[in-house]
Amino acid sequence: MVGVSDGQSSAQAPAAARTPVGRPLLSLALASMMDEVHAHSGAVYLLGRDQPVLEMAVMAGLPRAFAAPWERVGLSAPIPVADAARERRLVWVGGEEEMARRYPRIAMVLPYPFALAAVPVATESTVYGAVFVTWPGGHPPELSDREREHLTAACGRLAVRLERAAEHSIPPHPETDLVASPLVGGMAGTLGTVEAARMVSRLPYGLVSLDLHGRIGFVNAAAAELLNVPVSRLLGTQLWASVPWLNDPVYEDRYRAALMSQHTASFVALRPPGEWLSFRLYPSTTGLSVRITRARAVAEMNRAAPPPDGTPTRLVTITQVLNLASALTEAVGVQDVVQLVADEIAPAVGSQALVLLGSRANRLRVLGHRGYQDANVVERFDGMPLTESTPGTQVLRTGVPAFFESQEQLERLYPARVATPDGFAAWAYLPLIAQGRPVGTCVLSYTEPHPFPTEERAVMTSLAGLIAQALERALLYDAKHRLAHGLQEALLPHSLPSLPGIEAAARYVPATQGMDIGGDFYDLVRTQGMAAAVIGDVQGHNVTAAGLMGQVRTAVRAYTAVGQAPEEVMRSTNRLLLDLGADLFASCLYLRLDPARGRAVMSRAGHPPPLLRRPDGRVRVLDLAGGPLLGIDASAVYPTTEVAFAPGSLLVLYTDGLVESPGTDFEEALAALGRRLTDAGDQPLDELADSLVHPERHRTDGEERLDDIALLLLRAVG
Description:
elongated; 25% strand; 22 helices
């Protein structure tokens, strides 16, 4: 057992003397930390050696069941302890509203008023884990400087002790959670004196004492009579387990609410056949006192009684399902589902690797996997006929889960599996069934033989149902995304033509909202002795906008091919857009290039002005005359402007997504684009195009890109 020293050791003392063995390091450090800041509960997590997973090592103040969904969590999980360890900073959540806003998964499982601080346990070079502590709902909304300093210093000291233990190859041993011992026994021993017990037994209302685990340590005769259960059957049991008509998660939730918030809680329950009882819970840091009386004025209540039969509700199962259901609602595509299962579900059930399987055209498809050192071991199954005898195909065909507690058990049923070892020793094959049909199989793998008791199999099967729903949504999303992407590619040029005297490069970047499809377009067309270029933006980010964009681009090509002048091309396209009656507008910039003469003629319809980088490196915005957006006024005219386009000049045509974003001034963004062109305009065009539209330049801290970006670069060469 790793230990801590007594008091403050001398800095000159040997390391072994400063870190003696024999006293529990983690629980003592946690208890001291909680005492310093008057915290209500807390836990210490240690980072796994071989995988980025935080494992709860010791908990204090509350039963571990309260934090069951988060006993093992991925380092990337969106919860406070993971954020604290990953980002090496203190995370503070001041109350239930802030918890719901920042960590909705936790708020869904524990919707009670409490405050929480999570602190990394780390030295300058190594992260060892994290600690969280909680306070009841009455804590101020801000963490005080004193509390912050105490928590940070205590976690720093703990990290140093863990570092010293690691230097001496002393691993942290399992430690007992610091929860008050159950007060099971007779009335006299519980209350201290026989006379006090007699006094309580004479009271006309029921009194019950519960420890932090919800177990009954004392019950008076009036309570036993009201509950209609003998005292001998109540002592040492949980109230909702011993009283069948209290076997309802709603009542159990009141117990959790009282302990978490340290606020009085109450509820009314129907004792069959027709009597209502009132329960009032008075919490403390050692347990709860419950007062039971006959309810008054409840005639208007028509709540049906819970079913008297069935097994007791398990708190862990409920909280796990709530937490993981919340996590899976965040998945968008199939790879999001794979990552969330790896980060949330696999750690929760102790699995070290996973594979997500699907099917298409009666063949097995590997949708994703995590935790396998050799990816070929998994991917060799991709494309296998569903008629093959493997556990993955069998579960996918039948919808019946399969659990293999050892390698011998798996190989006995599937001898061919001997030829494809994956290095694991136990497996759970879970059918993913949505809308009554199988959509895939989730394979959870374990490095050691693993028994699967009935309760664990039931939990895994329930979780598989949640995964199936998320996977079905993700498969549909990915299919729509592929369709949209294919449509966009079909509507934009596959490549730009090679033209004498002109170098060209183009980029298209879709918005992050919608279906990754929009109305931005560009084109470069060869004409007799010259070239024509166009860039435009049909409003909208959907299939309708993309379809109209294709029609506009085709029209511009056609009008160019018949030899219309730039202003005529714009007028003809404007009339076409009105004739189509699409009720959508479009901006457009059209230009005719004559590299032999070093000139360019341009016409603009409500489009952002192009930028021209001269051969000497200076950049200016071309303030062109123009007309209104296409599709507004049938009589609109679009005047032209001629500009110099000498060898070495660079024209930059773009859509507004490149320079416009919420909170950004258009003029400032345009000036910034000009500065980038001044500095980098001599780069090869492909490199320059990538640097101008790289998503990271337009997205920070997960910010979404609200508009598409189209970019066309044209350089005159001698």
